[in-house]
Amino acid sequence: MNAALASVIAIILAIVLGYFRRINIGMLSIVFAFFIGHFMVELPASEIVSGWPLNLFFMLLAMTLLFGIARANGTLEIIANKVVEATSGRRRLIPPAFFVMSGVLAALGAGNISICALVLPIAMTISSEQRISPLLMATMVIAGANAGGLSPIAPTGIIGVTLSEEIGLEGIGLSIFLKQIIAQSILAAILYFLLKGHQLERINMDSQNKSEPFNRSQKISIVVFLLVVIGIIFGNLNIGLTAFTGSVVLLLLKAADEEEALKAVPWSTIILVCGVGMLVQVADHAGGIDIMADSLKTIMNEHTAGPIMAVMGGILSIVSSASGVVMPTLIPAVPEIVAGIGGDATQIISAIIMGAHVVTNSPISTLGALAVAAAGNDIDKDRLFRNLLLFAVIGLGYAALIVYIGIV
């Protein structure tokens, strides 16, 4: 068996074994990365270890530590209660409100990753407090962030525009942005009704305990959190470094117990995401990604290129970063595809981007991992993991369908 095929099988096997044997998929991925990378591809150990996505690791650690402090001192709980009070007890409005809020903030330039990192902890706290499906809240935030994240002034939108210009396509950023809003809005509506968000009953606010006023530690946490948000969104500061600085400031001010805050960091989720990243990089070195791409190319024609590339983008995005891996890998290949089989280059690029972003709730991709990491201890994280992964796989069919019928 050649290394390329072995690497593809290893990715599948890591997910299957992890799912059925209840072993962290990231840990399995690290082992597979070692065996395939060292014994089959003959990569040096330093090259294999470099596949650990350091930036993602640091961002997850910093953000979960910051919100671990806010959760430990009760800040998130009070914020969640005040958000619910603002809806006057109409719980069915909460998920759509988070979809819109995430979309608007992402479109203003923050991007999908930043907004999910900032909003998901609050959304998941509300999920626990108000008995709203954590899967519903997570998918609403992610869909909204993705809808706004393709804005031409947001990081992912900028990446899409830049990559398109490099292959000779100018001025398609706004068109792709609008198509993504439509695609993500339809997806959010489907998920809202599928997960019975419209059936959430109104609660009597008179029978609910009014949220307590913020104490000193909680007020300090809110101020620091707002400064972190301003720094990330408007100051274009690094997410991880800014959030970590905020965490240290809070600990210095005794806003929470350091030991309790560190316990809140979801180490298993961080190992999962980063471990899979190592295996995917080894698979890329081994030619496994090329095998998947070449296999799809053999069945493409002018009419099926869009749906198939959407599926290809989705498959890669389930186990990697949409903006960091999928778009830079597939968009440069579009001219060659069009030259070989025909088709509309703009449509194919839009299909790639859309396919990559309708599956980002995968828990072994960045945004899905943030959702699992943000879930409280009262939420069944194993069940949330499985459901997010299932919805990501189903998203592949959705991507192919809306591209095929011409919505995107």
Plain-language structure description:
The protein is an all-alpha fold and 408 residues long. The protein has one domain (3-50, 90-202, 266-404). The chain has helices at 3-21, 25-40, 45-49, 54-72, 75-86, 94-110, 112-130, 134-149, 155-166, 173-194, 216-233, 239-252, 258-263, 267-286, 288-297, 305-318, 322-330, 334-341, 345-357, 366-374, 381-404. Helix 5 packs across helix 7 (112-130) and helix 17 (322-330) runs antiparallel to helix 19.
Secondary-structure map:
Blueprint lengths: L2 H19 L3 H16 L4 H5 L4 H19 L2 H12 L7 H17 L1 H19 L3 H16 L5 H12 L6 H22 L21 H18 L5 H14 L5 H6 L3 H20 L1 H10 L7 H14 L3 H9 L3 H8 L3 H13 L8 H9 L6 H24 L4
Quick rundown:
The protein has 408 residues and is mainly alpha-helical.
